[in-house]
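Researcher: For the annotation table, I need structure tokens for Leucine-rich repeat-containing N-terminal plant-type domain-containing protein. Please keep the output clean. Sequence:
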Amino acid sequence: MAITTISKFLLPILLFIWVSPTVLSEKCSPHEKKILLQVKQEFGNPSMLSSWNASTDCCNWDGIECTNVKPYRVNQIELHGLDLPGPVKLPPSFFNLVDLEQLLIFEMPNLTGQIPPQISNLQKLIVLYLFSTNVSGPIPDSLAKIKTLTNINLAGNNLSGPLPPSLPTLPIIRVIFADQNSFSGPIPESYGSFASKDLITLTLSHNKLSGKIPASLKGLNAELLDLSWNKLEGDGSVLFGADKKTQEITLAGNSFSFDIGKVEFGMNITRLNLKHNRIYGQLPQGLTKLQHLTRLNVSYNQLCGPIPQGGRLQGYFPIDASSFANNKCLCGPPLPACK
């Protein structure tokens, strides 16, 4: 009888000792584990998320990272190429993970639906990568409520509607990729006055943007600017300036019309692509002073007169005759001599 009593007393202790290493080592909070299991269900339980198992620590699951200090929280999710069972909407449960700092979802053609306004729940989000999917609809205005955002990549989706005028209010934004979608309408005037002084990248290429670019874009000062292959028109010269930090600027495939001879180029320019527009005038001598120039294309415009000689405009591959072809009356090396 005494042995039985002792056994009853020791059994819970032995069980505690046996299970406690697992329990004590698990970093994932039960609340966040429940949310992530709901995300998995909303994804249609893809086999590539087999590590997302209720019996294991979610901080060790594929694509999940947690903070290193208590209280441990899920702060990064990176999922790409998931074998979704069919068209699946963006899981709404993502937006209950309020401690997320990085959300990276890409290369999922079966991912559909819209970006919900509830994305603003993620008030600690720094990086949002949602690209190469079939997510559609507009960019919600609520995205601009996440003041911690520094990097946004929404390229290669099926997003549409106008560009939200509120995005430039993000105070520390550095990078915005929004190319290869179906955005339409004009570029808002607010895109000439970003609150952030650290903007380095803005890409809006391969959309359906149209209309004249506003004069306010004279204030836009990014290192990489790509507005190519839209239906934009107007005075594209406002995008240039001797004091700008621009390194790469691509305006190809629009209907910009301005006198290039009056443009002053920043000395940091490495790539300049102006092909397939309605740019006129004579190429300025200032192009020969761009010591870092590695790419230049002004073909298919209405340029005339001699090509300036010197610098990197002759003999620096791939800057060759094709870079100046199909203009009104450009001449001189690397084109035939002027008459």
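Researcher: And a one-line annotation?
Model: The longest strand covers residues 74-80.
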